[in-house]
Design goal:
heterodimer, A: alpha+beta, six-stranded antiparallel β-sheet, B: alpha+beta, eight-stranded mixed β-sheet, five-stranded antiparallel β-sheet
């Protein structure tokens, strides 16, 4: 299978779809996850089996048709003829595990149309052979040829507000509360640390908001033609709370559901658009002090 | 948040009064605040009755301030004939933050409701006042009735100017805030990008211009009429028209025009004769138009509107990638600015000009009675009496002689009209080691700096125009140089190559209308009327906000 959809059978297999899609797929059933599909490691093999030479390697014809068809179906689901997508890669190692080398995850945001999408997929594939990747693997004593790539193509939510939700306090370790960082625009500014987000703490028992810290939110990531850009937040929005209490509670509730489903405290990335809450990513809180 | 610099210590100092401009404060407390000469609105010296009219009208600001919960009150003083403004806070210390918040909330509410308020409350009230004056028989009124009518007129001025300020605060507030938000969102681009989003809307000032153009078009179509305009001097035209049947009919059309649009003088204030009294400015404009008919202004307006709609679409496309809160704020301010730009002209048509002309007629009636009885020499001398003096004179009439008093006031007026008043008086805050000086203009040999008013460049002879009668000196291709411009001047914009004003900014009336007429304009040019010479070849750059003197002897 060259294409597997989030939520589809087989899309939890890391060796086929990589870590990102594999963790997201089981959640697509009972959470609002933006629709998307994966070009599997098999698709990568198809491309990689051409002759040497990197990004100028042609896109395999039959695969192009499959991708075009999937993109069109994605458009139908999003009710857009040319949906905006995020193109994200995850590497898979020879033992079928997620290849965890820092900074190797390429992401292309706000691609519109087949041309841009295909271009980004090819960039993801080619990045596997980048000098940086090669050097890393050489240092780690890992073979190069055994790494394969899966690429997730997913609807991009033009978030009004993004948030990161922890179902345990990452600083104190407390397990009885949910901590939320929220700010304007896409989550890149929170995750990248370029903005001081608002902070909410919600007590799990009763889902009551016990703290609201409104920060001066100076920067936000917005969509611009061709990609995204981090811009200054207009003055009138800077001290405005990004979340209302009900929205913080809704996020906390989603975090708790996920914690229950996964069986461990979770670090969730989510987005609000037109007051609809979307789940973007969910992973375990590996250490209880925040380090990227 | 950027770090605040340590502010240098400030102290309050008395501003030295120039010896040629002695000041007697009516209230000793007045000396303790800063008063500034409002040159943009009052560039010319005002005789006593005119000064008292403005004193009364400007009290309307404080009535509006109560409704809008403004942060400060405005007081005015007519000092040696010049209108000075002083601000005092409307809150106690410690209340500032709270009051600021309330003022902001009121501003938002009024921006949202401006259109409805204008249609359901403000305009109907203005029209009631107009009906009151138009329904009164001035000439037939008994003395006591006329005195009562005068007092009632004075009360109504206050109510009308309360409406004036209720209009302009949210109207200009919306345009300013939209410009500001646009600048924050899109740092690339020019100062004209945001105003483009609310250009090309029809308003009463443009309506007047369109009707004038229609008249000119009508005249040009009939050689018997057009010929008169082309060949005769302005002062001969009315009498010449009366001589022929088509001319007479056209003359009647002009009067129909004046019935609606003629209740306005040169400038803001009851002392200026209206077009109804002296239609020379209208005939001058018609002559200019007929001799060289400008493009149909309705076509121009349609083009400006199309440009606007495209600009709005472009911005909406860009904002699709932004948070909803940003888009919603933009749409709110855009709608408020659309309403505001029209109100910014329409309130002037109705209040500043139409009602002020009615006030003038009441004052002139007093003057007429006084002059016919020999109490004063000419009807217009009534403007050289203060309001209280007019009341007293009317009460004591006819057993009173005011000719000496008029002479005295006129001499004083002439004395101060000939000089430049100090920009500031009273007390101001300065850095500890500074003197409290009145601001000095910066000088640079052949370059005058101002602000962008309307885009484009123009080159031509500067024509310093101080009043509408002087505007007969304007030739096609001239660059109009004035202190400021008021709505009656705007039809002139169709014939000049460019506009330079001493006062104003991108939102001022002159700039807005210059953009509607697509004429380059530089506004806020300090000293424009004193540093430029009549006939001097200059080049103006509306984008850069600069005026360059080209012939240097």
């Amino acid at each position: 299978m060259n294409i597997l959809w989030l939520g589809q059978d087989g899309c939890q297999d890391i060796s086929k779809v990589g870590g990102k899609a594999a963790s997201l797929s089981p959640l697509a059933g009972n959470h609002r996850v933006p629709p998307g599909f994966c070009l599997t490691t098999a698709a990568f093999d198809l491309w990689a089996s051409g002759q040497e030479g990197e990004s100028d390697r042609p896109f395999p014809g039959a695969l192009y048709e499959e991708l075009a068809d999937a993109y069109k179906r994605l458009g139908n689901r999003c009710e857009e003829s040319e949906p905006r997508v995020a193109v994200r890669s995850s590497a898979v190692d020879e033992d079928g595990q997620s290849a965890s080398f820092a900074g190797q995850y390429e992401t292309y945001l706000n691609r519109v149309g087949m041309d841009e999408t295909v271009e980004s997929v090819q960039h993801c594939w080619a990045s596997l052979r980048s000098e940086r990747a090669l050097a890393y693997r050489q240092q780690a004593g890992l073979s190069m040829n055994s790494v394969r790539l899966a690429v997730l193509v997913q609807e991009l939510i033009a978030a009004d507000i993004s948030a990161v939700v922890f179902t345990a306090n990452p600083v104190t370790g407390a397990h009885d509360e949910v901590v939320i960082n929220a700010s304007w625009g896409l989550g890149e500014s929170i995750v990248g640390g370029t903005v001081n987000p608002d902070t909410y703490r919600v007590r799990k028992d009763g889902l009551s908001v016990i703290e609201r810290g409104v920060a001066e939110k100076g920067r936000m990531t917005v969509l611009v033609p061709g990609g995204t850009e981090e811009v200054d937040v207009p003055r009138f929005m800077r001290s405005q709370p990004a979340l209302e209490d009900e929205q913080a509670v809704e996020m906390a509730r989603m975090g708790l559901d996920l914690e229950e489903q996964m069986g461990f405290p979770v670090d969730v990335e989510c987005a609000l658009k037109d007051n609809q809450l979307y789940l973007l990513q969910c992973r375990p809180i590996t250490t209880l002090d925040r380090s990227e | 948040m950027p770090d605040q610099e340590e502010s240098p210590k400030k102290v309050k100092r008395l501003i030295p009064v120039p010896p040629e401009f002695p000041v007697t404060w009516e209230d000793p407390e007045d000396e303790n605040i800063r008063w500034y000469w409002d040159r943009e609105h009052f560039p010319y010296a005002a005789p006593p009755l005119e000064g008292d009219f403005w004193r009364q009208a400007l009290r309307g600001f404080n009535l509006s301030g109560e409704e809008l919960e403004l942060m400060f009150r405005l007081d005015s003083r007519c000092i040696n004939g010049y209108l000075y403004m002083g601000n005092r806070p409307r809150y106690e210390s410690g209340e500032e933050e709270d009051r600021k918040k309330r003022a902001g909330e009121k501003a938002e509410a009024y921006m949202a409701r401006m259109e409805a308020l204008w249609e359901t409350e403000w305009l109907p009230e203005i029209q009631d006042h107009l009906a009151f004056w138009d329904g009164y028989d001035l000439e037939g009124a008994a003395k006591q009735d006329l005195l009562d009518h005068l007092d009632e007129t004075w009360d109504r001025i206050l109510q009308l100017w309360r409406i004036h300020f209720l209009c302009v605060m949210p109207a200009y507030g919306a345009m300013g805030k939209l410009n500001e938000l646009y600048g924050e969102l899109f740092e690339d681009g020019s100062a004209f990008d945001a105003p483009r989003l609310y250009q090309g809307f029809h308003n009463k000032t443009l309506e007047l211009g369109h009707k004038l153009w229609d008249l000119a078009n009508q005249a040009a179509a009939d050689s018997k009429v057009g010929g008169v305009f082309e060949t005769r001097a302005v002062e001969e035209i009315p009498a010449t028209l009366e001589k022929t049947v088509p001319g007479h009919a056209f003359f009647f059309s002009v009067h129909t025009f004046l019935d609606t649009y003629g209740h306005r003088g040169d400038w803001w204030g009851p002392m200026y004769p209206s077009w109804l009294e002296d239609p020379a400015p209208v005939f001058k404009t018609l002559k200019d138009y007929v001799t060289d008919l400008p493009r149909d202004p309705r076509e121009e307006l349609a083009e400006l509107a199309a440009e606007r709609e495209q600009a709005i679409e472009d911005v909406r496309e860009r904002l699709k990638g932004y948070p909803r809160q940003t888009r919603e704020r933009f749409e709110f301010l855009l709608e408020a600015a659309r309403v505001g730009v029209v109100l910014s002209e329409d309130h002037g048509f109705w209040i500043d000009f139409a009602t002020t002309d009615r006030v003038r007629q009441v004052l002139l009636e007093c003057g007429r009675r006084f002059s016919e009885a020999g109490v004063i020499e000419n009807r217009e001398d009534v403007f050289y009496l203060g309001f209280e003096e007019v009341r007293e004179t009317l009460s004591a009439f006819p057993e009173v002689d005011r000719r000496d008093l008029v002479r005295e006031h006129r001499a004083e007026f002439n004395r101060f009209a000939a000089i430049d008043p100090p920009p500031e008086l009273g007390t101001k805050e300065v850095k500890e080691d500074e003197e409290a000086k009145s601001p000095e203009p910066e000088e640079e040999p052949n370059l005058l700096k101002g602000q962008s008013g309307s885009p484009g460049k123009a080159r031509g002879p500067a024509r310093i125009i101080r009043s509408i009668p002087e505007s007969s000196r304007l030739q096609k291709g001239d660059i109009l140089v004035a202190e400021s411009t008021s709505p009656p001047w705007t039809p002139l914009f169709a014939t000049v190559a460019g506009v330079v004003t001493h006062t104003g900014g991108i939102l001022s009336h002159g700039a807005v209308v210059a953009r509607e007429y697509r004429v380059p304009a530089v506004v806020g040019v300090r000293g424009a009327t004193s540093r430029l010479e009549d006939g001097q070849l200059i080049e103006i750059d509306g984008d850069a906000g600069e005026v360059r003197i080209l012939d240097t002897d």
